[in-house]
Amino acid sequence: MQKVNLCDACSKEKGVQDPTGFALADLLLGIGAAEEIEKGASTEKCPVCGFSQADFKKTGRLGCSVCYVTFAEGLNTLLKAMHKGTEHVGKLPERAHRAIELNHRMRALTENLQKAVADENYETAASLRDQIKQLESDVPNSP
Amino acid sequence: MKLSSMTSTAGEWLRGEGPHHQIVISSRVRLARNLRNRPFPGWAKKAERGSILDLIRPRVEDLPEMQDSFSESLQDLSALDRQVLVERHLISREHAAKGAGSAVVVNRRQTLSIMINEEDHLRMQSIRSGLQLKQAFKLVDKIDSALENKLEFAFDPRLGYLTACPTNVGTGMRASAMLHLPGLVLSELINQVIQAVSKIGLAVRGLYGEGTEAMGNLFQISNQTTLGEKEEEIINRLSKVIETIIEKEHDARQVLLQKKPNTLWDQIGRAYGVLTYAHAMASKEALNLLSIIKLGVDLSAFPEDRRLPIDELFIDTQPAHLQKSSQQKLNAEERDQLRAQIIRERLKLFPKPDISKMVRKSGNGSTAEAIE
């Protein structure tokens, strides 16, 4: 949470005394957002869109979906304060369903591969390695 | 479809046929989606926004629900037409401020509106009359699934759908209902309700959303958070709160009828008098008075068949609709005159408020004595 002290005139201006305004929550989140994100590396830019933290401070919006990875550290604290939880539990796009399924298969194959190598069962290991390679080419990059 | 043919009829949601339609004007659910690895509209360069629009728009227009739709680039709409769409809640005020690279697609029944390159690449919204959040979600969810097969949305297994503003991340869903609460306002209970609602993580806003004033006793209630809860859970939680508010509003009206019938009678009589005889009226005053007449219809002071003309006036007396109907540029003073004139004409055939009916319907004999 972010504490902000406002004088009488400012509080009126920011809608603190206006129960219908409710711009305050957004305003506070905006201020908090800028400060939270500053805790990360300050000069970092998003490799995909070139967005920086200073830009976020200015606009309160991110540059692209990859910004969520680039600025993850600062954003996580912010999201925690902003939402009910920290993990998405709602709808999954079909593509994500598939990706999650592929992930499970990949994990199983890797485990089997390790086991095959430990057992010196090289024929099986070679076949498993091929399957993993094939699977890797199918997995879309996230996010 | 042309804008004029769309705006010549009231949207389906205005026809007031949904459950609890006396108090819940409309239910809306919107989903925010973005394309993977493309800059969000606010950060994208003009050419990039254009290419994103070219990618999304034909796929939206191809949806079976969008046959014979109204589809237009924002740059091809006049400032007035954009404002008309805002007043019909078909686009946001933010979207109305956009130009090249942004578009809107609305279905014929005006139950589905898709903004392209608003704050997010896609903002899909479904509007229903009355309290129908589940049904509204169902439609917009279907649209989302259909588009997801043709476009790759930015999605993270942990954070869900990724949005330009972190406040929307996760489900990307904002569910809201527009409530008409004159009873709670007249009994000065509205602030308590607003405070209680905001304490449980829901937002209360005015007529046109964020940062707007509550006019005409109309309030929008919506979910504030989007991460860590399923869509259905959010909607159930919101629906329950709205049902409680509906009960409180009914209670407040009953208490007014029992304890302060004269105040109610006076409010309705004054609203009727001013609307019937005024020759200049600002839009805020019109909304506030129409709200009281609407309450009068709810309480049977006016016949039920007068409901639709009043509901239509809520929209038709908004500044851009007024300007549009006059077909010439009006200044504020001329608008106020025209507004008063339109209201006078529509109320010409409107019967005087009938207090006896009002008492008979809501009272149990005891209130009749109180009013005399």
Work out the helicity level of chain A: 55-70%
Given helix and strand content, the structural type of chain A is mainly alpha
Order of helices and strands of chain B: HEHEHHEEEHEEEHHEEHHHHHHHH
Give the strand content of chain A: under 5%
Instruction: Please tell me the overall pLDDT of chain A.
Output: 75
Count of individual beta strands of chain B: 10
* Low-confidence segments of chain B: 362-372
What profile does the largest beta sheet of chain A have? none
Largest sheet of chain B: 8 strands, antiparallel
Order of helices and strands of chain A: HHHHHHH
Distance between the termini of chain A: 28 Å
Low-pLDDT stretches of chain A are: 15-28
Structural topology:
The complex is a heterodimer of chains A (143) and B (372).
Chain A (H helix, E strand, L loop, with lengths): L7 H6 L9 H16 L14 H7 L7 H4 L1 H11 L11 H25 L3 H17 L5
Helix pairs in contact in A: 2-3, 2-5, 6-7
Chain B lengths: L2 H5 L16 E10 L12 H16 L8 E4 L5 H9 L5 H4 L6 E4 L5 E5 L5 E8 L3 H16 L6 E2 L3 E2 L11 E8 L1 H5 L3 H10 L2 E4 L12 E6 L7 H29 L1 H17 L5 H16 L8 H10 L2 H8 L5 H16 L7 H8 L3 H6 L1
Antiparallel strand pairs in B: 1-5, 1-8, 2-3, 3-4, 4-5, 6-7, 8-10, 9-10
What does this structure look like?
- The complex is a heterodimer of chains A (143) and B (372).
- Chain A is mostly helical and 143 residues long.
- Helices cover 60% and strands 0% of the residues of chain A.
- Chain A has helices spanning 8-13, 23-38, 53-59, 67-70, 72-82, 94-118, 122-138.
- By secondary structure, chain B is an alpha+beta fold.
- Chain B has helices at 3-7, 46-61, 79-87, 93-96, 133-148, 182-186, 190-199, 231-259, 261-277, 283-298, 307-316, 319-326, 332-347, 355-362, 366-371; strands at residues 24-33, 70-73, 103-106, 112-116, 122-129, 155-156, 160-161, 173-180, 202-205, 218-223.
- In chain B, a hairpin with a 5-residue loop joins strand 3 and strand 4.
- In chain B, helix 3 (79-87) crosses helix 12 and helix 10 runs antiparallel to helix 11 (307-316).
- The longest helix of chain B is centred in the middle third of the chain and has 29 residues, at 231-259.
- The chains are: A mainly alpha (143), B alpha+beta (372).
- Chains A and B meet through helix 2, helix 5 and helix 6 of A and helix 5, strand 6, strand 7, helix 7 and strand 9 of B.
